Amino acid sequence: MTIWNLGSINIDRVYDLPRLPGPGETLASTRLTEGLGGKGANMSVAAGRAGSRCAHIGAVGPDGDWCVERLTEYGVDTRHIARLGAATGHAIIMVDAEGENAIVLFQGANRAIADEMIGAALAEAQTGDILLMQNETNGQAFAAETGSKLGLRIAYAAAPFEPEAVTALLPFLDLLFLNEVEAAQLEKATGRKVQELPVADILVTLGARGVRWHGADGVRELPAPRVKAVDTTGAGDTFTGYVLAGLDQGMPMEQAIGLATRAAALMVTRHGTADVIPDLKDVRAFRP
């Protein structure tokens, strides 16, 4: 089977700081690193490193050829990534001494993906494949409706969070990923508790406390391994990619979540984003 990911591709510029700056404050960075990122690219890499076939649907600009080459090197199917005139998306990521981050996004080519590109990619999909999306590209509603008609399992990572984007997709979703803040925002926007939403499985990440799973058998909280975080950037994306890879490979949800929490825990012990997402061998050998 295949995970089809309509996802962003960004050039990440990561600045290490002693702490995150306040309004109007200037701080000197102790280190600058540049690498491949974007929630979509991160999730594609994670799914691929977890052992699944992942086909990325997206776009880069004239400055983004190396991003596509890097994804290819990481085992992602990049045939459906377009080269457009708009600049490649990029992110400015500030990381403090405790591993917490603040991020500024420039969307660029990620918001210039034509419906025709999405349709051409999904024409190759098979019933039972997974379609993954995040809120860093355009075309989500078209992709969700098209994927649903084709019998794909529709998954959505609702970040950056916009209530209108999530509510528009709810009728098509089989699996929804939220963090704790996003879950509260969605409840306020819809006037419904998370467990009342018409989605078969909803995973609410709780940071170091683990994951709350809303499924057919009720609500369960599953713990995460305890580690010393140095950089939380990309941990949620790693979790999402690993969960979907586990499901793609036939794991029950609880087992897929367990694998994904280990991958995310290992991820926060590393500096970087897509380039340092752990592979399956590392995750299985990980002893927190």
Record keyword descriptors for this entry.
UDP-N-acetylmuramoyl-L-alanine:D-glutamate ligase; 288 residues; four-stranded mixed beta sheet; nine-stranded mixed beta sheet; 9 helices; alpha/beta; 27% strand; globular
Structure report:
The structure is a single chain. With 288 residues, the protein is an alpha/beta fold. It has a single domain, classed as UDP-N-acetylmuramoyl-L-alanine:D-glutamate ligase (3-Layer(aba) Sandwich). Helix content is 32%, strand content 27%. The chain contains nine helices and 13 strands. It has helices at 39-49, 65-73, 115-122, 140-149, 163-169, 180-190, 235-248, 253-267, 280-285; strands at residues 2-6, 10-16, 31-37, 53-60, 77-83, 89-95, 101-106, 130-134, 153-157, 175-179, 201-205, 211-215, 218-222. The strands form two sheets. A nine-stranded mixed sheet has the order 5-4-1-8-9-10-11-12-13, with helices on both faces. The chain has a four-stranded mixed sheet with strand order 3-2-6-7. α5 crosses α6 and α7 (235-248) runs antiparallel to α8. The longest helix is centred in the last third of the chain and has 15 residues, at 253-267.
Q: Rg, please?
A: 18 Å
What is the fold-level CATH name, i.e. the topology? UDP-N-acetylmuramoyl-L-alanine:D-glutamate ligase
Number of strands: 13
- Strand residues, percent: 25-35%
Average per-residue pLDDT, rounded, comes to 95
Alpha-carbon distance between the two ends: 31 Å
Domain module count: 1
**Unreliable spans:** none
Question: Which series of helices and strands comes N to C?
Answer: EEEHEHEEEHEHEHEHEEEHHH
CATH class: Alpha Beta
Order of adjacent strands in the largest pleated sheet:
5-4-1-8-9-10-11-12-13
Number of helices: 9
CATH homology superfamily name = Ribokinase
Q: How is the biggest beta sheet arranged? A: 9 strands, mixed
From the spread of the alpha carbons, the general shape counts as globular
Category by helix and strand content: alpha/beta
CATH architecture: 3-Layer(aba) Sandwich
Helix content: 25-40%
